[in-house]
């Protein structure tokens, strides 16, 4: 099944362990071992998966674990989490589900790259893998929230999105907000006075020039499929037999 593309960044690849992420993002603390640790490497991260995030608490930068799909602290249950994997940058400061986290609980979501599906007339959607042209880690602008669920506390996260830029707009009209290294500290700092101005700056300075895309196999469409073969470039796939 092709992911619902009303949003963006519904799947991504994350292959780095916590120690590698901590080294790259200059984090001082690692997550405590628990049964909910993310699968690593994971070449097909899906909504509601446990993922690594980078956040700042008590003036300490740390790598932590969160469930992908935000659960607001006031939510009665987690039933809508899979539909809250993305937060639109244009409305994140005002939407009740996101505004509190946006003010005080921002994080970075590390990724090797993400998948997006291009609609093609009379053809199945073509998946692309989008990544840094130097193959470096990406830092998506994320938000996190803590929810007191029936089985205990749950930390969850979402990824901020924006209008797609440059050639990426030919694949999909949205893309994740990527935080450059020079803005990591500002984004993570809970005391940042004007997060709206910061997010606007990130969106305005974002360019797709550092991101490149290539088509990959439709095997990525199935959440159960995983492994480095999902990142192998392919020619754009033709329609299945029997279809135009």
Molecular shape:
globular
Q: What is the CATH topology classification name?
A: hypothetical protein yedk fold
Which ranges are low-confidence, i.e. pLDDT below 50, for 5 or more consecutive residues? Answer: 1-6
Note the main sheet: 7 strands, mixed
Please state the average pLDDT score. Answer: 92
Distance between the termini: 19 Å
Helix content: 10-25%
CATH architecture: Alpha-Beta Complex
Radius of gyration, in angstroms, nearest whole number: 17 Å
Q: Strand share of the residues? A: 25-35%
Tell me the name of the CATH homologous superfamily: SOS response associated peptidase-like
Q: Element order, helices and strands?
A: EHEEEEHEEEEEEHHE
- Structure classification: mainly beta
In total, the number of strands is 12
Structural domain count? 1
Task: Count the DSSP helices.
Answer: 4
In the CATH scheme, the class would be Alpha Beta
Entry keywords:
5-stranded antiparallel beta sheet; hypothetical protein yedk fold; 7-stranded mixed beta sheet; mainly beta; 244 residues; 4 helices; 12 strands
Description:
- The chain is mostly beta strands.
- The protein has a single domain, classed as SOS response associated peptidase-like (hypothetical protein yedk fold, Alpha-Beta Complex).
- Helix content is 12%, strand content 34%.
- It is built from 4 helices and 12 strands; from the N terminus they run E-H-E-E-E-E-H-E-E-E-E-E-E-H-H-E.
- The protein has helices at 18-25, 99-104, 184-188, 195-205; strands at residues 11-14, 42-45, 50-57, 60-68, 86-88, 106-111, 113-120, 123-132, 138-149, 152-163, 174-176, 211-215.
- The strands form 2 sheets. Strands 3, 4, 5, 6, 9, 10 and 11 form a 7-stranded mixed sheet that branches.
- A hairpin with a 2-residue loop joins strand 3 and strand 4 (60-68).
- The longest helix has 11 residues, at 195-205.
- The model is unreliable at 1-6 (pLDDT under 50).
